[in-house]
Amino acid sequence: MFSVKGKDMKKIIGISAIMLILLLESCVSNNNFVYGPTITANELETVEIIGSVETIFETTINWGKNNILLERSYNELLKEAKKSYTGEIDIKNIIIEKRYSNKNFLLLIPMIFGNGVGYGFTNIYAKGEVIRYNKN
User: Which of 48, 81, 106, 119 has a beta carbon 3.0–4.6 Å from 60's, enabling a disulfide?
Assistant: First the structure.
């Protein structure tokens, strides 16, 4: 008959839990979008939309920390916009989309051996409109 020792049982349960999480990950509906500052009605009279910019970057920031993700995305978008636009520019109407990273499979290795992993990799796609104030 087949018998499993306590230590081996923990590994089997751990591996089973990880596999279940991976299988169900696509079934769980979560909010994959975060929206940043938009152009207000008052600003419409004083700004000019001069273009749009987008970027993709990888982060280990917890997806629940929207304010940190917005700040990082804003900075990445502004850095990208400054490559193409000059003068006093800003980024508004930011949309951030969480995209799955294949690097998360690398985190399974320490999890299998009982080492907890406190973060995961996420690819962030961010898009925003480049504006210039003092529209004439």
Answer: 119
| Contact yes or no for 111/119 (Cβ under 8 A) | no
> Which tokens sit at 9?
């049982």
| Nearest in space to 120 (alpha carbons), one of 134, 106, 136, 132 | 106
- Based on C-alpha coordinates, what's the Rg of the chain? 22
Asked if residue 113 has pLDDT above 70, the reply is: no
Alpha-carbon gap, residue 93 to 80, rounded angstroms: 15
> Domain 31-133 falls in which CATH fold?
Translation Initiation Factor IF3 (3.30.110)
Domain boundaries, the chain: 31-133
Task: Please state, in angstroms and rounded to a whole number, the distance separating the CA atoms of residues 56 and 78.
Answer: 13
